[in-house]
Design goal:
alpha/beta; 13 strands; 5-stranded mixed beta sheet; about 20% strand; globular; homodimer
Chain lengths: ~325, ~325
């Protein structure tokens, strides 16, 4: 095994290239603007030029085991990005990105997956899931993403798109909130950062309860405002976390009936609220889960949140490339 | 690889021992009464005596690769039966059944799992899931059971009890039907054979619609009666299948967000209703599932339903023992 891997965090704004060692230290790093390029070919050319700089700082390609890319709409099986709506050079078709990079990097093994799966790989390689064979990472960001590990392997499913736990239905029928996926009642519509802000606006609009959250125009409220207000003891804000955590706990109870993981690992800005969100998750989970599973699962916060988790997560794929 | 395996179907009434070849043919078979014995030791002694008879018919133990047991509350990791409520010699503790049989069979490899997981192994070895790496078997019997295969492996989870898809919550809150597990709103409370009979009784009690189902006292209605009536064109009976299939389809849509299987394979008496149940399942699934998954999953009926599926399923474990 060679000493380093490359991790690539392909985001809507920047694409970050990092060199990572076996302990999860980022040794060298550089980036390019993701959308500055008209075609995928130009993007890859610029990426390789950027990469050559960082690779030279660790003694060249002969010290690199492989490369992993975390990207929106990434297909692990094919190494492609498929109809990624937010990429100027990738929204109209299928881009064989892993192959394109590999060809320009002397045949280096390149693997590609989506962001949440990369996060799960990162936790297993360098984070709180080290040594675990069965766990689920849930990312609470603009959306709700998930990376599921069973028997020590990522769950990609038949078509590479498994692990969309943000889109299980938590509220069936007409009362369900509209979700970005076009359906209603999805977990993501309630428990993402945007879902939390929406819960806040609903409570403020439907009641006249006093709250620190009223200091801002309702349409400007973000989940961070709810965290700050809850931290100050604001009852409405705390109720929003209780509501969000309760639904996450109930969802996890269903996920346990599926794969009975050792741990749930939460990642993303909402987790910075700490016990404000983790306590209602745990309590709701234990009250909801099938009796044989009670008291068995751990509820953890990611070990990579203060590091460059996206680069680390993607790089973990490089070890298997 | 030796030419035969032993499959054991440990049921509440009979325990059947079968010798199975690589093509899934049961070559020899015999059985004992499960509950005739005061202790697990006596049960195993009687089982081994019975087994010696069938083993001698295929040339002795040297032709046996391994043995698989399908049993209620079976723990695959430990080879134990744990607090099985319906077994006179197994309800008060943990019985190391795999080890006990192995010791009396010259150290033969013995694996043990629960019935629904055995069914999934059987479909993969000899049934409609041959060659599949990702699929879910759903058993519609007295309860709703499941066996989940991901990356070609059974999903046992951290504690060996994963795959309890009959106990995901389909109706949240107070309106949920009471389930045998002590909670409310589980899939099993609606879509098991007993759930279907209950749906029938509810519709008959709450409406005065004419139905062939009224020919029997309501408390005696079984799911088979609903199948027969629906087959004769009874509108109420067909509506019961539509209701049941719709919920199963919605549940499968959530399961796909988890593991995106190539196929759902249904097993059990309710499937004998054929398209009466399969059509609403498919239609509800396609209407409910996240758009990227539409049209991808197959909905199949078990290939082992007219064979001794429980013995075959358990025997499939013998190949890996």
């Amino acid at each position: 095994m060679k000493p380093y891997v490359i991790g690539v965090d392909l985001g809507g704004t920047n694409t970050v290239f990092g060199i990572v060692d076996k302990d999860g230290n980022i040794i060298a790093e550089d980036s390019i603007k993701t959308q500055k390029y008209a075609t995928a070919e130009e993007f890859v050319d610029a990426g390789v030029e950027c990469l050559n700089g960082v690779i030279s700082r660790v003694g060249g390609l002969e010290n690199i085991q492989g490369m992993g890319i975390g990207a929106p709409n990434g297909n692990y099986y094919n190494g492609t990005i498929e109809f990624a709506p937010n990429l100027s050079w990738g929204h109209t078709g299928v881009v064989p990105l892993a192959k394109m990079f590999s060809e320009k990097l002397g045949g280096l093994g390149v693997k590609l997956t989506n962001d949440a799966n990369a996060a799960a790989m990162g936790e297993m390689a360098y984070g709180v899931a080290q040594g675990m064979k069965n766990f689920i990472v849930i990312t609470l960001g603009t959306g709700v993403g998930s990376g599921i590990v069973v028997n020590g392997q990522l769950v990609y499913g038949h078509d590479a798109f498994a692990g969309e736990l943000g889109h299980v239905i938590m509220v069936r029928g007409k009362e369900g909130r509209k979700c970005g996926c076009g359906r209603t009642g999805c977990l993501e519509a309630y428990c993402s950062a945007t879902g939390v802000a929406r819960t806040a606006r609903e409570i403020l609009a439907n009641t006249d309860r006093p709250s620190l959250l009223r200091e801002k125009p309702a349409e400007e409220i973000e989940s961070l405002d709810v965290s700050i207000a809850a931290g100050k003891g604001d009852a409405v804000a705390q109720e929003i976390f209780d509501f969000t955590g309760k639904m996450l706990g109930e969802a996890c109870a269903d996920f346990t009936a599926f794969s009975s993981p050792e741990a749930y690992i939460f990642f993303g800005g909402l987790c910075r609220a700490g016990e404000l969100i983790m306590k209602p998750i745990r309590e709701s989970y234990e009250a909801s889960v099938l009796p044989i599973f009670r008291g068995k699962a751990k509820f953890l916060i990611s070990g990579l949140m203060d590091k460059n988790a996206a680069v680390l997560g993607a790089s973990a794929l490089g070890w298997e490339a």
